[in-house]
Amino acid sequence: MTDHRESQGSSQADRDQESVSDLVHEIQSSAQEKAQGSEARKGRKRTPNLLYGALAILLLANAYLWLIQPGWLSFTDDGPSVEDTLRFQMYVQAQRIQAYERTEGTLPDDLEDTGTPFEGLEYRVTGPASWELEGEANGVQLTLTSATPLEAFMQGEEPAEGP
Q1: Phi and psi at residue 78, in whole multiples of 5°?
Q2: Rounded Cα distance, 33 and 37, in Å
Q3: Rounded to whole angstroms, how far apart are CA atoms 59 and 69?
Q4: Which phi and psi angles does 124 have, rounded to 5°?
Q5: Which of 112, 105, 98 is nearest to 144 (CA)?
Q6: Does the pLDDT at position 49 exceed 70?
């Protein structure tokens, strides 16, 4: 009987030791989970802080650009000059004159024959197959003849008269 009691005692001791071992293992696991959760919470706390910091910097930069309007940021495009606009109108009108001459076989008597003319343009027939187109806008005067290549005229190779 004593052997039986001793074996029961040793198995009881084994069970107690297993219980203690399980308990220690659970405590370690719980401690690891807490540590990981703490690290995750720290990471989560950092993210909003970084996000708020970046947002604050962005708002300050936006306020600076909007309120101060630094010179290096301003883009000024005044659009085409008066001369460029006049050159383009004369180019279009010359195209109309050439199209009329191709379809009708003769030069138009006046600009209205080619369609609605642009304001400030004057047209003269100078020979059987030659013409001259003068334009004036805001003090800028240009002359285009049938002998002038349109590409050269558009590139400004024809000198402008006036201011």
Answers
A1: -80, 0
A2: 6
A3: 15
A4: -135, 140
A5: 98
A6: yes
Strands (E) located in the chain? 121-127, 130-137, 140-145
pTM passes above 0.70? no
3-class SS of residue 121: strand
Q: Give the whole-angstrom CA distance, residue 117 versus residue 93.
A: 7
Residue 133, classified by CB atoms within 10 Å of its CB into exposed (0-12), middle (13-18) or buried (19+), is buried
pLDDT for the residue numbered 158 = 55
**Ramachandran bin of 64, using left for φ above 0, alpha for ψ from -120 to 50, beta for the remaining angles:** alpha
Backbone torsions φ then ψ of 13, nearest 5 degrees: -65, -40
Q: From CA 132, how far away is CA 138, in angstroms rounded? A: 20
Query: Cβ(111)–Cβ(99) under 8 Å?
Result: no
116-133 pLDDT tens trace: 999 999 999 999 889 999
pLDDT at 162 over 50: no
Give the SS3 label for residue 79: coil
Cα–Cα distance measured from residue 130 to residue 105, given in angstroms and rounded to the nearest whole number:
13
Specify the long-range contacts of residues 102-108, CB closer than 8 Å, at least 24 apart.
107/131
Can you give the pLDDT at residue 26? 84
**Which pLDDT belongs to residue 5?**
52
